[in-house]
Specification:
76 residues; globular; 3 helices; mainly alpha
Length: 76
């Protein structure tokens, strides 16, 4: 996977797991900044790249589960 896209997925994962609203806002701002930079580098619209990351996020989480977790997690 390209490092820029994985960095976006990790940034999204961080704000989705934020324990409080303050950290959520800070981490979401980091994600938005990363998204803007990646969109410019890839010559895509920011909204289109965001939709792609949102769509791929669940698959990325399942692929990175430690051994022993069910890979069908999130498909129920």
């Amino acid at each position: 996977m390209k490092p820029g896209l994985e960095r976006l997925l990790k940034a999204m994962d961080a704000f989705k797991q934020a324990p409080d609203a303050e950290q959520d806002a800070r981490l979401r701002a980091v994600y938005d900044a990363e998204l803007e930079a990646a969109a410019q580098a890839l010559k895509l619209q920011k909204e289109m790249l965001d939709r792609m990351i949102i769509r791929y996020y669940a698959r990325w989480v399942r692929a990175n589960l430690p051994p022993g977790f069910p890979k069908q997690l999130g498909f129920e």
